[in-house]
Every structure is written in structure tokens, then in C-alpha cells.
Amino acid sequence: MAAEYATFGLAPAMRAGGVLADGAYQVHRDFLDFIVDGRPLLFRLADLDAVSPLASDVPPALFAAQVRGLLLETEAPLPGGRYILYGCPECADLACGAVTAVIEREGGSGGGGEGDEDGEGGEVFVWRDFAWQTDVNADLERDGYHGIGPYRFSGPAYRAALASLLDGTVTAPRRRVLLIGSRVALLAKLAAALRTIGIGADITRDADDVPAGELRGYDAVAFGRTVPEERRAAVRAAFARAGAEVACVDGLAPIVPLLVAQIEHALDRGPAKRRRLTALAVDGGAADVEVTSPCRVSLTAYRLDRLNRARVHEVFDDVLGPGRHRIPLDAKAVKGESYVVARASGSVLTASAAAR
After folding, report:
1. Domains of the chain in sequence order
2. In this predicted model, what pLDDT tens digit does every residue of 186-198 receive, in sequence order?
3. Cα distance between residue 249 and residue 320, in whole Å
4. Cβ contact 343:298 at 8 Å
């Protein structure tokens, strides 16, 4: 019956980059996630910072090879017919760990088109024996994801979703941000941080002399908080005349990690139901955080002291279950002008803390 088959699809996802509290950088990655029965497969893997092999920055030939592998047109890269579904977002080295599964085909002739649309009596692709691997061989008893799969996908639907990636119409998302403000030194540091994590950034005072074609190459525009409203309106009008739809970011404070987090959030155009972290609010000495699936969440507080120097405090780092959580905050971390950045796998949010 059709009920025994899982639905298969693909959807854009991202691993949010950023400047972490210890000064380390986390690279931004755009990729396609596997959607099984309407839900990202990655969300079933609780505390995992990983991306699929279908990443936008993968060279075209390698991207096509990954797709053909999932279609079983090439030999499996690991023993036992195992394919990598998610890997390290920084280096893609198996030694860092990867989620793998056996992919096999049942029925059909391998060319598609046989059987009915639901896969009954025709070709079926099966994903089974999911495991976490750090070596070429998988230990299912020790490292298997025993609560996930097996999934049986209708051959025609599975092929259609993956084959669409080979026709040359899939384009990588833009990752360029236009920075506008008066504090040149701060903007230079911000641009350098964004470029380090894989996001292009350019600096200008306004957009009056920027050609329309160039404006259409940006995905977001970020304003320093000293930029007057009339200049912001003029910039937004310039983008509108160019026919460019961009996210507008109003900088909360001159703190580079905070601004990077704001921009990363603006670059996330995916629907809320496909994000792990969906809400953040800070009030009364606590943060209200909402997540859609089990994941590790970190909260970092940033504040400006009386000399306008940035101070940083890591205030929370633990795995949260689905739902809304109220997390107490250290009063010293959020006194005065302060802000909180929440991070989960693939999601980042920012919020202003009430002044004390």
C-alpha cells in the first residue's frame, strides 16, 4: 500500500556561520537537506552540526557526482553500499564523523518509469541502517541510529527530485551583504569577519552611485545604528528601483559577533517549520527560547560597558527538547545595554535585553 512508502524531497538549508564567544569562526554553508515525510532528515539527528554533500560551494563536477551516487549510478564510497548523507561542515573529513546509510534499489530496471507513481510494483529506493561513522567501516551495534528508518521511497518521485539537480537550473544562493555606516574601522572588521566565514561583504556610505546590476547581487543590506533614517530610506529605494529584494538589517550595537549573528539570521530565508530555533525573547532576567526538535542550544550575552567596550558572557549551552523554554540569565551578563545571541544547528537569533 502507498502508506508503506515515505515521501522524499529536497529543500534549501543552511549551517549558520558566526564569530563564537571564544573568538573562533564558524563557516557559513548553504546546502540542500533531505525532506522525508515532510520533515528535514537532519532534525531527526538530535545534536548534530553537519551538512549534506549537496552543498552550494561544492564544485559542479563533484556536486553532480554526489547526486549520481544517491541515484546509485556510481559505486558506493564506503564498504557495504554505504553513502554519506551528512558530514563535517568545516572540512568534510570522515575522521570528524559522518552520518551514513545503506542505499539500495528494489524492483524496476534502474531507468525509472516502471510501475505506478506510488512505487508499488515498480522501482523503490531504500535508505536503511543509518549510522555515525568516523572510519571506513560502520559499527551498527555501537553507532547505529536504531530509531531512524528504514525508508522506502517511490522510484519515480525519488529520481525526479534528484535528477532535477542535474539539469543546470539549480543556482547557489547569493551570500553578499552591503554594509552601510559611518564607523569605517568597525565596518572593516565586520566585513573581514563575514568574509572569513564565507559571506561576501562590501562597504559604502550610500547606494546612490552603485549600478542596479550590482545591487541585484546582494542578498542583504546592513545599516549601522548611527545611519539616519533618510539615508536608510534612500538605500531601500535604490534597491527597489533595481528590482532587488534584500533583507534589511538594523545593527543593534557596534559589536562584530552580534552583527554577524544578525546578518546570518537575515540570510536564512527558509520557513520557520524547517528551522530548529524559532523564537528568542529576553525579559525579566531570563531568555525565552523555542525549538522545534531536540538540539543543542547556546546563549551568549554581549553588553557595552560604561566605556563603550564590548563584554561577552557564555550563559547557557545544553540540549533542549521541542517546545518553549525559559532560561535564567546571570544579572551581570545582561546589565545595562546588552543583547543575547542564541545558536542551534543551522539557526541563529538575536534579541535585546531589557536595560537595568
Report:
1. 2-166 (no CATH), 174-254 (3.40.50.2300), 270-356 (2.60.40)
2. 999 999 999 999 9
3. 28
4. yes
Interval 282-300: pLDDT, tens: 998 899 999 998 889 999 9
Angle formed by the axes of helices 184-196 and 256-267, to 10°?
50
By three-state DSSP, how is residue 103 classified?
strand
Quote the Cα angle for 79-84-88, to 5°. 125
State if pTM tops 0.90.
no
Q: What are phi and psi of 101, to 5 degrees?
A: -155, 155
Q: 39 CB contacts (<8 Å, ≥6 apart)?
A: none
CA distances from 329 to 1, 134, 207 (A): 52, 37, 40
Amino acid of residue 106: E
Gap between the Cα atoms of 249 and 262, Å rounded: 7
Tell me phi and psi for residue 207, to 5 degrees.
-110, 15
